Structure to design on (742 residues):
């Protein structure tokens, strides 16, 4: 008798269900492609973040030596001073590898900053709209309609030009961040609003209110955590979309200005035609990096969608 | 449905109105407005410069407050300038009509005098307009911009281009009507060919968007259905891989790779750029074969990601439907595989696709800018790219308005098409 009671107590004390994170991780792990994608993305972020520590040459200034070789092939060693270029040099003799590393720094960090900002803004405005409803909801949602009705890339280009004209001292980096955030928050806000709206009248929210919780506490502690799954997926996909947006607008010449390197403007540095003619490999590297980054993010997003969906059986 | 349509249309108009306010505000972030460049003029004599700036400001309406400028941009009701060619032409016509009926000899004399003077004035104004080429002359620039400033955006007057095709109305530029060749410094006509609404930038872009959606659907529907029916087969994995490549490769990457392949001669002479082989040969514009061959490259760049997205979407939607009870009933009845898949499952699986297609339009409008700039396709995307590079504000603003109208229209279309196709949907 006593031993059975002890077993029961033991089972009660160590419940079978693990923490939510462990469940999510277990489901996420099943997507091998997402695991590979995570490793690739982490490696890219790590290499880009530490670019200044390991890149051998300056990404913007070419070596000052008079005998610097232009458009050198990968694995080129300068016979005069022994400088070694793993991926060769570009059209004015800058190290391609260093430029790729720094361009990754710019493209990834813009994507990252924009994603964080958009998620924060979207969560705050979406929660306010969904929780309070009424006039403020109408105004905010019309604003979302407005933002989502703007053709993204054309607006991005136009605002970029307008901002460059009116604020010439604003760096092209922060200009692009600012515009992407201004144009990108609509989707997240709409998503958060829908989630909050569906949770607002559930019993547990009523119960929390009956216990005397403030609006802020209900939103922050009870509504947002419960609507986190779709937000995380949206955030992941936004990261990819913003990287593509920055690269696209830089590719067209309205984003990050040369000589600073971004994945987009490296494809037109000095021009697409000249790259195709003289250095097709230099055209392939940035394309490969964008491809790997976006593909990895897509895989991670898909896996997260499955892993975070409580309706899916394991 | 009618009530819904009316409400939806009113909402769309409100959104367009708000968009126009926002865009106008952004373009006027600088207190000098988008006309900042006008001020970059150097005059030797400061007094002369002050006077020139004052004249330009008056002509451009910059002496008004920002809200007033916006209202005038919507609709300019102010009497036209006495030097305005359109105003003078209308006057001339009025006097010509009057000359036929007038009986009072004094009045007739006055009218005849006006009929003599007005053409001279018009010729003078036109001569000034022709001299518009000198951008760094404030007077001539102000002249160019104000000459066609009657009405406003509410009367479909989007203003006058500054640089791409100087002095041309923006609407004519976008639609492709009446763009006079030889008038512009960046050889607009050599890229866009003889003017015609049927192969103007807007028509070209709509054709390209339509073509790429068609291309995407023609590939995605069979692929999606195959992948769903033969889930986890080798074919499914291959198509999934292709889809992921399509989703991971932004259009500008695909475009640059396509150009690389073309220069290496791997495309067997597939034409890239333009809509016909020889823009000046009018007969080629009606040759379907030539037109199609020029659509393949830009259509592929634009449609590949679309195809990838669609086929993933059809696959999951089809998988969902295949597990429904009514499909199982169809199998149990002993229906042929073809009947179950194509008549029962596919029809329901494809319904959500309609919304998906319409909602792809905003992304396509962005893709068009990239495709046009890479493959040199003469659409509104290329126009935006050129206008952006040259800071041609009126063209940029006009293109944004046109783009916003297309996006809003496609959103409404998505809802309506959904209700028309799926009888279960009812709007009230």
């Amino acid at each position: 008798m006593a031993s059975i009671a002890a077993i029961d107590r033991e089972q009660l004390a160590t419940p079978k269900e693990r923490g939510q994170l462990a469940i999510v991780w277990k489901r996420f792990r099943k997507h091998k492609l997402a695991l590979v994608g995570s490793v690739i993305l982490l490696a890219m972020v790590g290499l880009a973040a530490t670019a200044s520590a390991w890149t051998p040459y300056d990404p913007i200034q070419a070596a000052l030596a008079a005998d610097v070789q232009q458009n050198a092939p990968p694995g080129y060693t300068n016979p005069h001073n022994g400088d070694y270029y793993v991926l060769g040099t570009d059209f004015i003799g800058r190290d391609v590898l260093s430029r790729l590393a720094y361009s990754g720094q710019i493209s990834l960090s813009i994507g990252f900053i924009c994603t964080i900002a958009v998620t924060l803004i979207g969560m705050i405005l979406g929660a306010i709209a969904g929780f309070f409803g009424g006039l403020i909801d109408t105004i905010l949602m019309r604003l979302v309609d407005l933002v989502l009705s703007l053709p993204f890339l054309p607006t991005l280009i136009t605002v970029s030009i307008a901002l460059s004209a009116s604020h010439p001292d604003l760096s092209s980096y922060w200009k692009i961040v600012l515009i992407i955030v201004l144009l990108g928050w609509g989707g997240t806000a709409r998503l958060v609003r829908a989630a909050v709206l569906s949770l607002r009248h559930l019993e547990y929210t009523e119960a929390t209110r009956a216990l005397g919780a403030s609006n802020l506490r209900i939103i922050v502690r009870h509504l947002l955590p419960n609507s986190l799954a779709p937000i995380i997926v949206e955030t992941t996909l936004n990261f990819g979309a913003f990287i593509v947006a920055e690269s696209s607008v830089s590719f067209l010449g309205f984003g990050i200005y040369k000589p600073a390197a971004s994945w987009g403007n490296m494809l037109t540095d000095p021009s697409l035609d000249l790259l195709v003619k003289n250095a097709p490999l230099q055209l392939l590297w940035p394309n490969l990096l964008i491809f790997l980054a976006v593909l990895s993010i897509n895989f991670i997003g898909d896996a997260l969608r499955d892993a975070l969906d409580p309706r899916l059986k394991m | 449905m009618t009530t819904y349509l009316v409400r939806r249309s009113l909402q769309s108009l409100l959104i367009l109105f708000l968009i126009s306010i926002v865009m106008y505000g952004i373009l006027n972030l600088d207190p000098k407005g988008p006309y900042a460049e006008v001020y970059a003029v150097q005059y030797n004599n400061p007094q002369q410069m002050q006077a020139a700036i004052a004249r330009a400001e008056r002509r451009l309406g910059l002496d008004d407050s920002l809200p007033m400028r916006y209202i005038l941009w919507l609709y300019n009701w102010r009497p036209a300038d006495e030097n305005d060619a359109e105003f003078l032409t209308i006057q001339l016509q009025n006097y010509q009509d009057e000359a036929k009926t007038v009986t009072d000899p004094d009045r007739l004399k006055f009218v005849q005098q006006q009929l003599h003077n007005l053409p001279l004035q018009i010729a003078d104004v036109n001569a000034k307009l022709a001299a518009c080429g000198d951008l760094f002359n404030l007077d001539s620039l102000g002249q160019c911009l104000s000459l066609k400033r009657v009405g406003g955006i509410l009367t479909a007057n989007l203003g006058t281009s500054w640089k791409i095709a100087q002095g041309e109305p923006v609407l004519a530029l976008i639609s492709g009507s009446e763009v006079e060749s030889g008038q512009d410094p960046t050889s607009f006509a050599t890229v866009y060919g003889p003017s015609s609404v049927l192969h103007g930038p807007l028509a070209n872009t709509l054709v390209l968007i339509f073509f790429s959606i068609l291309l995407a659907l023609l590939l995605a529907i069979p692929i999606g259905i195959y992948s769903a029916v033969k889930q986890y087969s080798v074919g499914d994995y291959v198509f999934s891989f292709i889809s992921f490549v399509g989703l991971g490769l932004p259009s500008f990457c695909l475009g640059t790779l396509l150009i690389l392949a073309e220069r290496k001669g791997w495309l067997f002479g597939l034409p890239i750029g333009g809509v016909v082989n020889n823009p000046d040969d009018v007969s080629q514009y009606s040759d379907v074969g030539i037109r199609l061959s020029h659509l393949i490259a830009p259509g592929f760049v634009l449609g590949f990601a679309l195809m990838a997205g669609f086929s993933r979407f059809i696959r999951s939607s089809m998988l969902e439907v295949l597990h429904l009870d009514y499909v199982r009933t169809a199998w149990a009845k002993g229906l042929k595989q073809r009947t179950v898949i194509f008549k029962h499952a596919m029809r329901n699986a494809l319904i959500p696709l309609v919304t998906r297609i319409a909602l792809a339009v905003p992304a396509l409008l962005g893709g068009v800018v990239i495709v046009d700039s890479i493959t040199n396709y003469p659409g509104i995307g290329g126009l935006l790219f050129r206008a952006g590079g040259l800071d041609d504000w009126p063209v940029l603003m006009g293109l944004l308005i046109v783009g916003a109208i297309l996006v809003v229209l496609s959103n409404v279309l998505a809802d309506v098409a959904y209700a028309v196709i799926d009888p279960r949907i009812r709007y009230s």
Observations:
- The domain at 197-390 of chain B is CATH 1.10.3720.10 (MetI-like fold).
- Chain B touches chain A through 53 residues (CB under 8 Å).
- Chain B has 18 helices and no strands.
